[in-house]
Amino acid sequence: MFSPHGPTLRELAVQALSSVEHGYDLLAPKFDHTPFRTPDSVLEAVEGALEPMGPFDRGLDLCCGTGAGVDVLRTVCREGVTGVDISAGMLAVGREQARAVGQPDVTWVRGDARALPFGPVFDLVVSFGAFGHFLPAELPGLFAQVHSVLRPGGRFAFPVAAPPRPASPWYWALLGFDTAMRVRNALWRPPFVMYYRAFRLGDVRRELVRAGFRVELVALPGFGQRPDGSPRCRMVVATRESGTAGA
Fold first, then answer.
1. What is the per-residue pLDDT for 18?
2. E-strand spans in 111-149?
3. pTM here?
């Protein structure tokens, strides 16, 4: 699962026994060589689905990490791109990588997604692979924060994969991972919140609507269909309605 340039088992163990913030600070130099980074195929699919909806003016990559989603925003946004993350280490890597490839127009901001340091200045917010770090009870506040930084008519977009079926090995792998994390958090402090099965589409849609969004689902056809004909991967597009206020 990891390239030779990725973290060692010992490094992963140290990171897993840290807080979310400090764990990602430690992981940051090798993060792009792990399977935790969003695959390019997902980024490209979201970019392709967003292009017909744009162009947008200003974009925000929420929980940006080292900036995998920044290139998506730079393609579909005309004015400015901002990445926000709680980990200073991840931001430092993202900033250095952007500088190395000549992307000085990206603004990197350290901040908590549950208390965003922005006003309603963005037309598009995206996020990739970060929602496992939020407990279900935190979704209303998180979505209210996203709502508060979007201009009326602005969109909040993110991919969601269909959950694996019980017959799939991935189902049991994810169940085992979540169980191990819950045991770890029951026995060790500080907690490391990372639950892959806690972000359920039905709950997400309900909380987005409560926060004042109009929600639609866009199939990402490049990932195929399940046996019942439903898409294996969708993009959630939540639009801030004019005149609505967040929860």
1. 87
2. 122-126
3. 0.90
